[in-house]
Please model this.
Amino acid sequence: MTLEKVNILLVDDQPAKLLSYEVILKELGENLIKASSGREALEQLLRNEIAVVLVDVCMPDLDGFQLASMIREHPRFQRTTIIFISAIQVTDLDSIKGYELGGVDYVPVPVIPEVLRAKVRVFAELYRKTRQLEQLNSELERRVVERTAELEASNTRLRESERRRSVALAAGQMGSWDWDVLTGECVWDAGQYRIFGIEPDGFQLTFDNIKRFIHPDDLERIQAHVRNGIEDKATFQTEARLLRPDGTTRWCICAAAVTLDDSGRVVRVSGVTIDISERKSAEERQLLLAREVDHRAKNALALVQAIVRMTRGANIESYMAAVEGRIKALSRVHTVLSQSRWEGAVLGGLVDEELAPYRSGDPDKVVAIGPEVVLQPATAPTLALALHELVTNAAKYGALSTLAGRVKLSWELRHGALDLHWTESGGPTVKPASPGFGTRIVVASIERQLGGKVSFDWRPDGLYCVLSVPRSNEMEISERASRGRRNLEKDHAGVAASGLAIAGSRVMIVEDEALVAMVVADALTELGYSVLGPFSRPADALAAIKDQEIDAAILDVNLAGEMVYPLADVLVARGVPIVFVTGYGIESIERRFADFPILQKPIERQSLQNIFVAANVNAQMAVGGGRAGAVSAAAASV
Model:
C-alpha cells in the first residue's frame, strides 16, 4: 500500500541550516517545504496542508515564538505540530512558553540527525494516521447518512405498503393474524378485531380465549387441519362461523399457511379471515327468492288459467277484451311489485293505473282520495283484480259509460281493516237481476281469498260498493315501495308520450317468444300492417333487411340473453323508427335509447294501436339526436 506523503515545513533564516535539515529529513520520503522567514512560513501554511512545522527559535523580524503564536491564532492551524530548534540553551521558562504557544518538542543545536528524523517521523506518521482516521470517519458518517436515508425510505415504503394492505383488507372485509402454536401467542390486526367484534383493550390474545368465539363444530375442523398438518401443501382454507360477544353470528373464510419444523410438526399458522356474512345472506335470499318466484309464477299461471276458463263474452272479441283486461291488471301489479323488490305495492299507484284511461279534461269525472298505503305482495294482485272489475263494469254499464257520469274512490285505514268506498253517480240506473261474473270475482277475491267483506248498494244514481280488507294484510309504508310507484309513474308517462309516425306499412318483428311474436303479428295484421318476420335472433333480422325495406321495427330487448342494441343501432342509422318491447322496466333500457317508445309485456292490441299512427298519415319522419322522430297520436295504455 502506497502511503500518502505529508508536507513538512522547514523555517530558518539561514540557508545552510535549511539545507542541512533537508538533507537529514530527505530519507523520510515526505514533501519538504522551505521558508526563510516567518512571513514566508505563513504564506506556505496558507497554501498547503502542513503536517509538521520545524521552526528556528531565533530569527530576525519574527522569531519562532511569535510565529507559533500567529499560527495558533488561525483556526485552521490550531492542531498543527510545531517543533522548535534552538541554538541557545533553553530555560525552563522558555520551554513553558514554547509549550503554551503550541510547541510539541524542542531540538537543540547541534542537531543530531537520528533524533530529528525520529521526532519528525513520529509526528508525520501521527498526522497521516489522523488524516486517514478523519477520512474513514467522514466515509463512515457518509455511509451512516446514506444508510439512514435508505432505512427511512425503506420504512416509509413499508409503512405505505402496510397502509395499502390495511386499506385493502378493510375494503375486502378481511383481517390478518398470526398464531404461534407452541406458545399459544396470537397477533391480530385491526380488521381481525373488527370481524370478531372484540375491542382490543383488555382482551388477551391467546388461542384458548379466541376459540370461545368460534362455533364448536367449525373449531373441531380447524383444529384437525392444524393437528394433522398439511399432506401435500402448506396452506388450507375453510369456512367457519364466529359467535360474536353481542350474540350475532358471522360467516367467514379462514385461509392460512402453516410453518413446519424439521420434524414436520406445525409450529406456526398465519393467515387471513374474510367476512362473507353478506354473501351468505345474499345466497340465502337468492335461494328464498328462487323458491318465491317459483311459487308466484305457479300462482300467476293458475290465476291466468282461472281467468281464461271463467271469463264469459257475448262474442270472441268481447271475450278477448275481457281476458286481456284482467291479465293486464295483473301485469300492472306485477310491475309495481317488481320495482319495489316485492316488498309491497302502493295502493294509490294501482288505483291510478286502473283509472288512468278514463281520466279526461274534467278533473271531477274520476276522483281517487286516500292515505298512502302499501299492500303486501299476496294482497295486491287480488285487490287489483277486484278494482279492475269495478272499473270495467262502470265503463260497460255504469257511470263511466256516459259523459255525465262520475266515479269517486276513497279509502281509509281504521282499526283492523282497510276500507275502500266506490261511489258512482250521474250514470244510468243499473240493478242486475243476478250477479255477473265480474261481481262474483270481486266477492270471491275479497271475501274468500282475503277474508274481507264486500257490500253492493245499487242506488238509482249509481253503484255504491264497500270493500273491506283485514288490516293484517297490509303493511306500513316503505321507501322502496314508494320508489316502485314513482318508477311506474315514470314508465307510464314515458310510454304515453311516445307515438310513432311511419311512412309505410311494413313492420319487422324481432321477438324470441314464439307466442308473443304471434300475438304481435296478428295484432299488426289486424291494424292493416304488413309483417316481416318474426325473427328470434338479431343476425337473422340483419340478414333479412339487407334485401328488404322496412318502415318500422318492433324489437324485444333481450333475445335469449343476446341484447338487441346492435340491430337497433343499424336501424337508427338507416332512419327506421323502432319500438322496444321488454318484460322489465324503462330503467333497464340503455340510456341512449331511453326516449324511444317502449311496450311492456304482456302487450295489448290497444297499446300497439296507440304506438303506431295510421300508416301513410303524415308521411314524414324526423331523425334527431340518433332517435326517429316521434309524434304523439294517442295516450298509450301500457
User: Anything to note?
Assistant: Confidence is low (pLDDT under 50) at residues 473-498, 614-638. The two ends are 102 Å apart (CA to CA). Residues 113-171 form the longest helix (59 residues). The chain has 18 helices and 27 strands.
